[in-house]
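Quick one: structure for this chain?
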Amino acid sequence: MHVAWEIDFEDVAGSEERPDAQSASELITDVLLNVFGSEETMTRAHVMLHVASPLHEQIISEGNAAIERGEEWAAEVGPIRVTLRP
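Got it. Here's what it folds into:
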């Protein structure tokens, strides 16, 4: 299974300012917890440890630096691909 989604922050209700890498990472974690919410605890733990955590680290470091330079950035961990655009 491959999961891909795009979040248009301009369409997010109540969003008044442009999100940063930290808020993007938090949103991805929330979505993954929701998607895998009905799975067994070990499956959720695996997703958080082996997918969400590595994505978070990459988004905060490499992704944030690319965005600050005005560049697009992408990473793929397991079935999740994330693309950040300035």
